[in-house]
């Protein structure tokens, strides 16, 4: 039997007493005149004498987040979406009956207060209550601000409490919204159109990742949650929508870490008559604007590391990065056994089925990626790990592709798109062969996409940017869970 919560029982009793006095615990609406932030904009710079001349009463509403009682008077603080303000509740001002009702209200309750503004002896702008109305009764107490919600798991599971008591958390998600809107504005101004592509797909394509599988009962068919929108967005380019972008969810059935959540937000954009080098220019412009928007500078500090976004950014080949930064000998790029030996020497898990390109990128992930703090474009990825990228004209074993690294993490992946349907079909066939050997991340054959390419796709470049990781960077957040409102959590076994 569940143990009764004494605080819950006490608050329910207060609710019962309020109802006995004719108080509706959950009335409709609120009828306010302004938000708290608007109150500060209008009255925050007025002196005491100016406030006295303002005889009109104003109604504000919010959650009670603090309370100090002094017998026949109380000071409370109210919070709403825009800020916090103090209110002074005096028995002789609101009347004995209303004051007795107020005494049954708790921290956490939502109330409406109507009155006039004045300044306390300390100069704090305060609303002197003339009327009080309960808007919503809180039956459970809020965590005490400094001690009650430090447990990380509780913060993620009960994000609503985290937002109530931790202003800096709320600020992260306010900034997230600003950043996402700025990205939309950036691409709209460059003549891109925003589109939406299917979340449920018959074939999960566009990325090397293990998908989530579901089933549609009415159609009696299996479906997959998408791992990427890429192949649908490129179908739109075939159809004549030459500049498209989408900001939406992807789903990958993978592990959870400070950099990975199975459900995450991606920006993908595609532009006809462009190359991956054009994307590099656009990416620098986009990020520079976002950094200035949030930090008003070209340099930020992320987890104690200074990151300089001054353009142009460094560009280095995958091969040179592994030799110069990772300390790998050049022969590992042409000799699989040498690559295997290097991987084992660094304790990297490998299998006998992995291609040379896969081994090289694994070495890069361990030896180089964590060291790329300032924005760095790494180019020249092997064809066998880039099944959707255009081959390089000078070296067909490599592709016209880059990955962007900032703060020791991959942030973006972009390339000139493979628009040759014959070559693309061969690449898909290679991926299918890998799936048959047990590689659950290898891509599927998508015949309809091949058919689309056979109708002709103009030279095109496309890029994917991990929005959550961008928000991590710009808000100095150590974990992806800190920038996702409701990260996936394992079911609690209580």
Largest sheet: 8 strands, mixed
Q: Assembly state here? A: single chain
How far is it from the N-terminal to the C-terminal residue, by CA?
Answer: 13 Å
Which structural class do the helices and strands define?
alpha+beta
CATH names the topology of the largest domain as BirA Bifunctional Protein, domain 2
Radius of gyration over C-alpha positions, nearest whole angstrom? 29 Å
The total number of structural domains is 2
Low-confidence parts, pLDDT < 50 over ≥5 residues?
A: none
How much of the residues is beta strand, in percent? 15-25%
For the biggest β-sheet, the strand order reads 6-10-11-18-17-16-15-14
- Per CATH, which architecture of the largest domain? 2-Layer Sandwich
Shape: elongated
Overall mean confidence score, pLDDT:
94
Number of alpha- plus pi-helical segments: 16
Number of strand elements: 18
CATH class of the largest domain: Alpha Beta
């Amino acid at each position: 039997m569940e143990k009764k919560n004494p605080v819950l029982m006490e608050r329910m009793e207060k609710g019962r007493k309020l109802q006995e006095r004719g108080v509706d615990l959950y009335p409709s609406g609120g009828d306010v005149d302004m938000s708290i932030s608007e109150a500060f904009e209008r009255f925050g710079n007025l002196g005491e004498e100016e406030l006295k001349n303002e005889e009109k009463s104003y109604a504000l509403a919010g959650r009670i987040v603090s309370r100090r009682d002094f017998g026949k008077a109380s000071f409370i603080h109210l919070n709403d979406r825009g800020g916090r303000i103090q209110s002074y509740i005096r028995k002789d001002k609101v009347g004995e009956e209303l004051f007795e009702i107020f005494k049954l209200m708790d921290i956490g309750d939502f109330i409406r207060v109507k009155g006039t503004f004045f300044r306390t002896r300390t100069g704090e702008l305060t609303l002197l209550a003339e009327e009080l109305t309960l808007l919503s009764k809180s039956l459970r107490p809020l965590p005490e601000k400094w001690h009650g919600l430090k447990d990380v798991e509780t913060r993620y599971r009960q994000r609503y409490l985290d937002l109530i008591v931790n202003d800096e958390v709320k600020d992260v998600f306010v900034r997230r919204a600003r950043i996402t809107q700025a990205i939309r504005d950036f691409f709209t101004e460059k003549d891109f159109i925003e589109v939406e592509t299917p979340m449920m797909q018959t074939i999960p394509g566009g990325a090397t990742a293990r998908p989530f599988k579901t089933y549609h009962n009415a159609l009696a068919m299996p479906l997959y949650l998408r791992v990427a929108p890429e192949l649908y967005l490129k179908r739109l380019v075939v159809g004549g929508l030459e500049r498209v972008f989408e900001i939406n969810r992807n789903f990958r059935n993978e592990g959870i870490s400070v950099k990975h959540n199975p459900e995450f937000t991606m920006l993908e954009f595609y532009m006809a008559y462009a190359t991956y080098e054009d994307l590099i220019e656009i990416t620098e412009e986009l990020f520079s604007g976002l950094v200035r928007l949030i930090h008003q500078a070209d340099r930020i500090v992320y987890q104690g590391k200074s990151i300089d976004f001054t353009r142009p950014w460094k560009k280095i080949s995958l091969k040179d990065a592994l030799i110069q930064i990772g300390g790998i000998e050049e022969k590992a790029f042409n000799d699989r056994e040498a690559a295997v030996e290097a991987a084992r020497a660094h304790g990297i898990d490998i299998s006998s089925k992995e291609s040379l390109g896969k081994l090289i990128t694994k070495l890069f992930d361990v030896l180089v990626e964590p060291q790329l703090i300032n924005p760095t474009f790494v180019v020249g990825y092997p064809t066998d790990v880039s099944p959707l990228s255009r081959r390089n004209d000078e070296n067909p074993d490599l592709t016209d592709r880059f990955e962007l690294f900032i703060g020791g993490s991959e942030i973006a992946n972009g390339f000139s798109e493979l628009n040759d349907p014959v070559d693309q079909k061969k690449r898909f066939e290679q991926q299918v062969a890998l799936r048959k050997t047990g590689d659950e991340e290898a891509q599927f054959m998508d015949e309809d996409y091949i058919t689309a390419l056979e109708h002709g796709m103009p030279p095109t470049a496309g890029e994917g940017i991990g929005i959550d990781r961008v928000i991590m960077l710009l808000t100095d957040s150590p974990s992806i869970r800190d920038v996702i409102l409701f990260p996936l959590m394992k079911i609690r076994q209580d």
